[in-house]
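ok here's Bfr1p, seq below lol
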Amino acid sequence: MSSQQHKFKRPDVSVRDKKLDTLNVQLKKIDTEIGLIRKQIDQHQVNDTTQQERKKLQDKNKEIIKVQADLKTRRSNIHDSIKQLDAQIKRKNNQIEEKLGKKAKFSSTAEAKQRINEIEESIASGDLSLVQEKLLVKEMQSLNKLIKDLVNIEPIRKSVDADKAKISQLKEELNGLNPKDVSNQFEENQQKLNDIHSKTQGVYDKRQTLFNKRAALYKRRDELYSQIRQIRADFDNEFKSFRAKLDKERLKREEEQRLSKLLEQKDVDMGKLQEKLTHAKIPAFTYEIGAIENSLLVLDPTYVKPKKNVLPDLSGNALETKPARKVVADDLVLVTPKKDDFVNVAPSKSKKYKKKNQQKNSENEQPASIFNKVDGKFTLEPTLIATLAELDVTVPINSDDVKVTVEQLKKKHEELLSKQEDQTKQNIESVEKEIEKLNLDYANKEQQVKKELEEKRLKEQEESEKDKEN
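and the structure came out like this:
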């Protein structure tokens, strides 16, 4: 931490305090001046009687204003009602015109009945021609229909008359709500307030001057407070930046350490996989093919081992250069193994056994024959028996078995050679997939480390801000 503080300069508290002390002295002086002005304001007061009178007049003005507002509301409501009634009358007149028609000659039943009586008298006189009489009959029918319509619209006409009467009543009420008297009362009351204000104007002017001085001092004090807040904010920001740099450096160092460990572990794991890849590139079934070829050299004198040396452990000079004895089936006998000797059963195919078997093959790679003589008869070497058992072929105990064994070995040799290239390719692809997965896993781990450190940084930042708020 000490080395980091030397690397990043820590904000100087003494410089901040020196600036604040200068401003605090000015604040104290301004507070003293404000206190003196407050005392002077308290000394310049209007007497209680004048204040009480003025308060009464102000209260009365408020009541008058309220009355004026009520009058205005009532007049507005009356105007709205009149407009609604006018609209209703207009709508009802339209209904009447629709029922009677605009060409109706008579507007009352009495007029229509009088005309019907005239028509009946004219027809009864017998002086009319047939055409004239038909016209009058038709007119009389129209008049009868008109009478019915006039009877139907009579309630609408009465409703129109009622609406007109109501409008007249509302207009009379509107004329009664004259706001002029209330306005006169307000003007008279306001004049009294103006007189009181003129008498006390000197006191108010002096108080206003003191208020202005105090406002100026308040403004100056607010400026000083603003400067103090700015100085503290600047210092806090500098200190916050300083702490942020330290935290960033610490998290960076922690990230480097964790990523370094991760990279070291990746190198170890990658080394193992590279070693595994190297082994995978060795042709598949190398051990089994070499074991088969060496076994064929022993069991089949006509067999010529390929010159390709793929299994050094079982293709030594002893087996390649030493001519094999011919298997005499009549002399072959089974040897009963002792406790520590080889047992003629299929052995385990584990890596441990293979390693042990390879060591035995190395030890037995001597110029001697692969056959041993026991009681005047030849028997197979235990290592060969073990190899045949491991290859899962018949262990010969007579001449017929030797032929069968040779055929089985050759068949297995061909099978393994045919599968060798594909199996080798599969082995390489398998290891390459492991390497690809390893790279992906460590890339994810690297991202996870960075994510955890970022979350840690954000959490520390939130806790720091909460501490400042508290």
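fwiw The longest strand covers residues 371-374. kinda neat tbh
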